[in-house]
Amino acid sequence: MSITNTVPHLRIARPSRDLAAAERFWVGGLGLDVLWRSTATGPGTHDLLMVGWPAAHWHLELVGGATLAAEPTPTDEGLLVLYLDGPVDDDLVRKLERAGGTRVSAGPYWDRWGVTVADPDGYRLVLSTRGWSNG
User: Which residues contact 38 (CB under 8 A, 6 or more apart)?
Assistant: First the structure.
């Protein structure tokens, strides 16, 4: 099978200190859907929260709970960028902030072309005014 002949599904997996806080941000703030949720059932398992839009070819998997093996380690360059192809809705940014996000600078390029909000674990979401083809 060649990946050039299909649209593969992308999963972005990240650890989270608090899955309830992450859900408030990604679901309550951004408007993603909960696609899957599970609770650790024994050794070697984790609490999982998968969020995304059902028709999208990607989802975000958040791993947490008492058996979390790695702490979140966000960086300034570790961005999840959503290309909106138009202005960023100020109400959406306020909603993300009320849901536990913090507006931050991601540098001159992204500050010019969008708004960056850190989630409760510190990972950065960029809402870009650009379209994918000119991103």
Answer: 47, 48
